[in-house]
Amino acid sequence: MKLQNKNLKTLNVKKYLSIFLIIFLQSLPAQKSINTIDVSTVQIRILKKYRNSDSIQRNRIYADSIYTPYQKLWNGYLGNSAKVVQWLNDNQSQTDKWIEKSKDVNGKQITRSLQKFSKGMKALTGYDTKGDWYILFGPAWTDLGGLGRYAMVIDLSHENNKSTESIEQILPHEITHQIMMETNQHNDKTALEPIIGEGFAVWVNQKYWNKKYTLAQHLGYTDSELKLCEKNIELIKSFFEKNKFSEDNNIIDVFRSRETKLNEKLPGAIGYYIGYKIIEQYVLKNGKDSWKDVFTKSPREIYEKSGF
Q: In the record, which residues are listed under signal peptide (predicted)?
């Protein structure tokens, strides 16, 4: 009988503990699904404070305060501690320029924008935006972009990031990519993957903004570059048909890289244009709400069901 009473008491303790934990966890504020890490403000503060220090102290501070807390970012974007410290030293002269630029576009403003746009994209797509966004002054290798499948980067050094508005213009595009990191687990290594991915991001960006920006702006082209794509659509389609399933990085770069061109007449990143046309055709064929299929279906299935 004593053993039964003891077991009963133990069960009651576990029961009340479980109830307490449920109530406690429910009382905690919900974790934000989008997390912004403002490295830029830290950079400016450290660079300004230690610009006249001796090199030994300065290098140590750079490593301890700018590299180490954001090691995952730097390793994925610029390199190890030595490379980051060297880069910071080489760009000391940019400090005043960065300080001045931060008056027009900075981490606090962008954080507010990301929270606003993640809510807007949830309303549009039905999906939460999950993941990290790093805001920094970097080597300007990208304006906005992904670090593999784990984080997004906004490099304020890039010439395209002139203002908060210029960054906001492309946020639905980049948020689309981040949502797809969670929803689309198809492992496609062919050229079709970035073509469909970028084309879809362009299409969603256009849908989000309605008629505020032109298609050329959504594509990242000039008006004349878009006209050249339209004029040479058969040439682009021919190259696409021959290479859509290629796993050759040189071929893939012709579709996704701004610096790589099919020929001197056409802009780089023609995959954005051809991908947009595929998504456009898919929606026309499968219904006005079918665009959401792209979040979960494979690039190949989207292409094959588009009739493009």
A: 1-32
